[in-house]
């Protein structure tokens, strides 16, 4: 707490910061400077909403801050200016020094093309280039993403969706290349067997594998590899997206809502994520590719999937899937992560299949 007090110096009425609670980890505390003192308000998380006084409820911290900047209601004074978060400042500095901070006035937003877990995605144009814009409104999420974005700036590969930069404006805008053909799942579902042959399917499988091999070489774990997170470019190249939200190979438990059907058994049980759990997801993704975008484990509930897979159940081979590709899926689905191949091995096998 004293740290928050020392940070709100020089004392200025309405200067505030939001910090994580020390006593209640995961909760936030709003600290407000007033008459030379710092007052602390615990932010209570209830039914997916935030509140300080159990009367006024907000969907996210930004809404709450905006509200208390307009009227003080139940706090000592209206909020005037935020004390910048240390980490954010350094991330922001690093991004601007390396030329990744873009200019909001040069961005034109078009229609919404997607809805992610953290914000909406829009089509846009930046200095004449067609782009996709992901807008993250919630301040705290935006701050953690800013950290993640600095990771993305260091990654460049033909099979990863390219980050062009970020804009800090009412939250965070993440600007990436526009992938005109949408996500791989929809792409395959809407075209089907009559349009796409198995050579093209192998191409997509190889594209994703190469993107993942690159992430693996950087010791990064994707954690949410699935056809919905692979995008298809104008010239029909598949690229892995949303990898900037990856955690560096971590043993940290993360109670995010896990996509059960794509998640390796050890990740579901012990929340252990590694390149080898990404390999499991890649096996599911291969199944999605060779069924032309079907939902994995058709007709099974999530509970059934968890139990059955733990007992050793694996999906059947998709209709007319090359036998070698199905045996690759099975290798990806080895119960023991150590027995699963790495992405470079998978790539070699796919290249043999193509030749």
CATH architecture of the largest domain: Orthogonal Bundle
Overall number of domains? 3
What is the mean predicted local confidence, pLDDT? Answer: 86
Largest sheet: 6 strands, mixed
The CATH fourth-level homologous superfamily of the largest domain: Transferase(Phosphotransferase) domain 1
Q: Helix and strand succession?
A: HEEEEEHEHEEEHEEHHEEEEHHHHH
Q: What is the top-level CATH class of the largest domain?
A: Mainly Alpha
Main sheet: strand order: 5-4-3-2-1-6
State Rg: 23 Å
Q: Report the count of strand segments.
A: 15
Distance between the termini: 63 Å
Question: Do you know the CATH topology of the largest domain?
Answer: Transferase(Phosphotransferase), domain 1
Short overview:
This protein is of the alpha+beta class and 355 residues long. It has helices spanning 2-7, 61-70, 86-97, 139-153, 184-191, 198-217, 265-270, 275-290, 302-310, 323-332, 343-354, and strands at 15-20, 28-34, 37-46, 49-51, 57-58, 81-82, 107-115, 120-126, 129-136, 163-168, 172-177, 220-221, 230-232, 238-240, 247-248. 35% of the residues lie in helices and 21% in strands.
Describe this structure in words.
With 355 residues, this protein is of the alpha+beta class. It folds into three domains: 2-71, SHC Adaptor Protein (2-Layer Sandwich); 86-177, Phosphorylase Kinase, domain 1, CATH 3.30.200; 184-354, Orthogonal Bundle (Transferase(Phosphotransferase), domain 1). 35% of the residues lie in helices and 21% in strands. α3 runs parallel beside α4 (139-153) and α8 packs antiparallel against α10 (323-332). The radius of gyration is 23 Å and the shape is globular. The termini are far apart. Mean pLDDT is 86; it is low at 247-255. Keywords: ATP-binding, Cytoplasm, Kinase, Lipoprotein, Myristate, Nucleotide-binding, SH2 domain, SH3 domain, Transferase, Tyrosine-protein kinase. Residues 107-354 form the Protein kinase domain. Residues 1-83 form the SH2 domain. Belongs to the protein kinase superfamily. Tyr protein kinase family.
